[in-house]
Each structure stands twice: as structure tokens, then as C-alpha cells.
Amino acid sequence: MGGAVFGKSPAALSAAAKRIYPWTHHSLCHVYDSTGRTNEGIEFMNRHSAAWEKADFFEKSHNWWHLSALCLEADQDDSVKNIF
User: What pTM did the predictor assign?
Assistant: First the structure.
């Protein structure tokens, strides 16, 4: 858990500064997932997903994969279908 708390601070600060870094979103998604805050993770990733359009293919698709994994965890199967 200590690593997750350490990882959240820089990622949260970067997101709060409105920087558009898809890898920051990716890192914070891991924090939400590893701390059991699935719904917060879904909201966060949805809120920042427009920034991924300018990312390279791997970065973009990997973030969408993480969002879909969170949605599956939250039993939001229709959301997963909409992503893909």
C-alpha cells in the first residue's frame, strides 16, 4: 500500500495541474485499482480520456484497456462494450 500512496501524489499533482499526460492517468488508474477505489478510477479515467486521442497507439489503447478493466470490476459490462 505504501507504494500506491507514494505513486498517487505526483500523479494527482500532475492531473490537478491540468497537464495532459496519458501516462499520468495510467499511473493514477493503478492507484485507484490497487486501493479498491474502482468507481473513482472510472470517473477519473472517463474525465481524462479525451487527452488520450493525441497519444501514440499503445498509450491510448492501454489506457482504454485499463478503463475497461475497471468497468468489468464494477460490473459495468455495457460500458466495456461501448469502449470497444
Answer: 0.78
Containing structural domain, residue 76: 2-83
| Averaged pLDDT score across all residues of the chain | 84
Cell numbers linked to 62: 492501454
How many Å from the N-terminal Cα to the C-terminal Cα in the chain?
31
Instruction: Write out the three cell numbers for 37.
Output: 477505489
CA 46 from centre of chain: 8
pLDDT at 14 over 70: no
- Tally: H helices and E strands in the chain: 5, 0
User: Number of structural domains, the chain?
Assistant: 1
Give residue for cell 482504454.
64
Contact between residue 15 and residue 28 where contact means Cβ atoms under 8 Å apart = yes
